[in-house]
């Protein structure tokens, strides 16, 4: 070791752009271009920045790009003022933002000015997790990384390298690794988030709701939220549509143990006991079928196995469900009738994060079946059909090599050689890769490349993740901040934030197909590099340069755009290309088709019945069954988790602009429960789970807005990374407390 070990360095650029006081920041964000142009009106901190700016950069410059504070990728216009990034606003041409960003999106400049940013490549010098590093040049770090990956591939095959990723920024690193020969690429956004929902919908309709979801919230007459707190879960376009629907008078039914912001606006709030959703869903379907309120024409034309389904749910009466769910039978009945009155423009939102009790794919299927009874698939106010403007790949890129060993994540189910552990998972399962790393089965996994996902917060059962990391020969982390997973890396590569980089083109659909471009607005402040650059440089060193035949990233994007018949200059100027909306609903002339084995909507699933017959295990029933969740130890509370509108999980908790709005989470407790325990709001408490894991201290919020017997925490807080100073031990980590996994 020829360089001294150092702590993770602090970003000096931030020192000359101090965080603005919140009120001033909000005023500036709301300013018009004309008002902002008055140099004499600049606040002192921006005036100082203006003075420091190069003469060529004086004045205003705007760039159309896409937000990456969450994965939604809203179109944005970033303004550079006197050489400094000044503000980010919605792009009016963009179908996702329609000219407005969400709370988090407007805080995007905080990501650029974040004083905790990783600045330079780092190579570990001390024990894993001791946070001792040497600063390396990019050549040194990439040569070292490629050497390690090649050695591991030589010893165990290229499949022994697994990638964990989140978001579009990881595209080119994924490309390099797939070209090198690994099929093991996983995102927590599947197995820890929307995967069970997608599987449930796919088993029913043959397709999943996608991302963004194909939900026509804007035109719905009745929106049902179950396990979704839209508004706090702030997906910009959906929230705008939600507001439009409510102002039009759409009915709102919310089933949630917590009086969420959405529930506070609902016509009916059902404060269900956590873990009883399938009981409620079965009872709703029971009322709708028993009273003949479903869409009989849709079921007759497109349904498969309806009679067997109807028989299965016949005993799930509202009275039965009321005892399980803790809401009244009358409320179950009246909300079911309300849904039926407005069909097909009734939408039971599929939600996103739906990974809770181990019966989540069946829960997702029950949501899909209730929608099917509304006959809302392909209907205005229900689910429209996704359409895309697919762009061809850049010419000459070879096909990925095919692995003879297949993926490592989804080995045979115990007791069945012929079935995979998760027979219907259509993406790689993160927890499966983690198990393969620990057990070495079906083959050794010896290296992880973790790109833009803080696995210690994103995956449950931290000890298992740490055990897997212990079994690795090499861990590469690519990130913008020194997250908890970065603490444990052998090499850390600092990625530029979205306002400093190109990414691949986003071909997406929001009420119609469109393309969106992310392009750099400002330079990275230090030696941070974009994902496309890291992917290509790593690819060269791994010997897969042929997969990167383009001259520059701009040329790559331009060729793809022009091959699609679009104007590159216009695309750069506008940031989006909006396609013509083809028929996407029956009302517009869409012919319905379903990609299931029967070609119909499967009320009774033969696919599930086949697995159930073969393996004889619960969970694969052809119609979703309810299992009462286990009780916790006496006196314990059930922890439920959610989101805050100013944060995207752990990703933003250190962002100075957003942390100012919410620096840490609090633990909500029902006011009566708190009084019984003699606790008042503001008391700092620690939470201990059933396995003895204890959280950091967290302030209590005693509230009427939560059902008794539960505690509620916003996810993403309680980071244990010392180098991430702004986030270190702020609040309590829900991931730390989630030690049991089904
Ligand atoms: Fe950015 Fe908000 Fe859109 Fe996410 S929803 S991309 S944070 S503006």
Concise summary:
By secondary structure, the chain is of the alpha/beta class.
Structure description:
- With 742 residues, the chain is an alpha/beta fold.
- It is 32% helix and 14% strand.
- Strands 5-4-15-14-13-6-7 form a 7-stranded mixed beta sheet, with helices on one face. A 5-stranded mixed beta sheet has the order 20-24-21-23-22.
- β1 (60-66) and β2 form a beta hairpin.
- α10 packs antiparallel against α13.
- It is globular and about 70 Å long.
- The model is unreliable at 1-55 (pLDDT under 50).
- The structure holds iron/sulfur cluster (SF4).
- Iron/sulfur cluster (SF4) binds at residues 67, 69-70, 72-74, 101-102, 104-105, 234-236.
Gap from first CA to last CA:
44 Å
Strand content: 5-15%
Number of strands: 24
Walk across the major sheet and give the strand order.
Answer: 5-4-15-14-13-6-7
| Silhouette | globular
Let me know the average pLDDT. 92
Unique bound compounds = iron/sulfur cluster
Structural class, by secondary structure, is alpha/beta
**If you compute it from the alpha carbons, what radius of gyration comes out, rounded to the nearest whole angstrom?**
26 Å
The biggest beta sheet is recorded as: 7 strands, mixed
- Measured as a percent range, the helix fraction is 25-40%
Q: Number of helical segments?
A: 26
């Amino acid at each position: 070791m020829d360089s001294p070990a150092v702590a993770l360095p602090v970003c000096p650029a931030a020192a000359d752009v101090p965080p603005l006081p919140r009120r001033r920041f909000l005023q500036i964000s709301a300013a018009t271009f004309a008002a902002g142009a008055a140099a004499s009106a600049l606040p002192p901190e921006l005036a100082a920045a203006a003075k420091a700016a190069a003469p060529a950069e004086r004045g205003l410059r705007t760039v159309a790009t896409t937000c990456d504070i969450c994965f939604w990728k809203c179109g944005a216009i970033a303004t550079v003022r006197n050489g400094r990034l000044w503000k980010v606003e919605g792009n009016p041409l963009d179908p996702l933002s329609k000219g407005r960003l969400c709370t988090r999106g407007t805080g995007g400049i905080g990501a650029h000015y974040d004083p905790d940013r990783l600045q330079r490549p780092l190579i570990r010098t001390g024990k894993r997790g001791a946070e001792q590093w040497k600063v390396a040049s990019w050549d040194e770090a990439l040569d070292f990384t490629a050497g390690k990956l090649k050695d591991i591939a030589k010893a165990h095959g290229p499949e022994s390298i697994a990638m964990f990723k989140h978001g579009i920024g990881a595209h080119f690193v994924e490309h390099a690794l797939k070209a090198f020969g690994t099929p093991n690429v996983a995102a927590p956004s599947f197995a820890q988030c929307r995967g069970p929902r997608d599987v449930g919908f796919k088993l029913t309709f043959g397709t999943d709701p996608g991302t963004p979801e194909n939900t026509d919230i804007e035109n719905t007459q009745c929106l049902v939220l179950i396990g979704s707190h839209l508004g706090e879960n702030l997906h910009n376009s959906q929230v705008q549509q939600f507001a439009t629907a409510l102002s039009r008078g759409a009915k709102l039914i919310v089933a949630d143990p917590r009086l969420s912001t959405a529930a506070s606006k609902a016509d009916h709030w059902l404060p269900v006991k956590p873990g009883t959703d399938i009981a409620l869903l079965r009872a709703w379907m029971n009322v709708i079928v028993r009273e003949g309120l479903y869409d009989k024409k849709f079921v007759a034309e497109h349904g498969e196995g309806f009679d067997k389904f109807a028989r299965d749910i016949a005993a799930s009466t509202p009275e039965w469900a009321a005892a399980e769910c803790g809401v009244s039978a009358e409320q179950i009945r009246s909300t079911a009738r309300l849904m039926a009155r407005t069909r097909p423009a009734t939408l039971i939102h599929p939600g996103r994060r739906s990974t809770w009790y181990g019966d989540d794919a069946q829960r997702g299927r029950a949501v899909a079946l209730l929608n099917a009874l509304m006959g809302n698939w392909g209907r205005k106010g229900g689910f429209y059909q996704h359409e895309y403007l697919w762009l061809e790949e850049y010419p000459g890129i070879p096909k990925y090599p095919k692995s003879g060993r297949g993926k490592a994540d989804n080995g045979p189910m115990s007791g069945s050689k012929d079935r995979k552990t998760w027979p219907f998972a259509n993406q790689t399962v993160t927890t499966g890769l983690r198990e393969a790393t620990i057990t070495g089965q079906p083959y050794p996994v010896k290296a992880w490349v973790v790109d833009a996902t803080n696995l210690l917060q994103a995956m449950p059962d931290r000890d298992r993740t740490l055990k897997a990391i212990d079994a690795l020969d090499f861990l590469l982390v690519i990130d913008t901040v020194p997250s908890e997973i970065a603490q444990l890396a052998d090499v850390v590569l600092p990625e530029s934030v979205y306002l400093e980089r190109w990414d691949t083109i986003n071909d997406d659909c929001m009420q119609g197909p469109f393309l969106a471009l992310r392009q750099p607005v400002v330079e990275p402040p230090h030696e941070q590099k974009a994902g496309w650059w890291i992917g290509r440089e790593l690819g060269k060193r791994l010997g897969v340069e042929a997969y990167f035949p383009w001259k520059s990233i701009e040329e790559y994007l331009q060729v793809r755009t022009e091959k699609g018949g679009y104007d590159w200059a216009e695309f750069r100027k506008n940031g989006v290309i909006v396609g013509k909306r083809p028929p996407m609903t029956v009302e517009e002339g869409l012919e319905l088709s379903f990609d299931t084995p029967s070609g119909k909507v499967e009320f009774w699933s033969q696919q599930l019945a086949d697995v159930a017959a073969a393996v004889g295990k619960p969970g694969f029933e052809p119609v979703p069954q309810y299992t009462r969740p286990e009780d916790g130890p006496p006196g314990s509370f059930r922890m439920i988790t959610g989101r805050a509108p100013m944060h995207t999980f752990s990703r933003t908790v250190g962002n100075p602009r957003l942390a100012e709005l919410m620096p840490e989470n609090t633990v909500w407790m029902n006011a009566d429960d708190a009084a019984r325990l003699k606790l008042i709001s503001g008391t700092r408490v620690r939470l201990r789970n059933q396995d003895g894991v204890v959280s950091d201290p967290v302030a209590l919020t005693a509230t009427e807005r939560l059902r008794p017997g539960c505690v509620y925490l916003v996810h993403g807080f309680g980071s244990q990374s010392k180098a991430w100073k702004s986030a270190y031990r702020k609040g309590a980590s829900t991931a730390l407390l989630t030690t049991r996994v089904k």
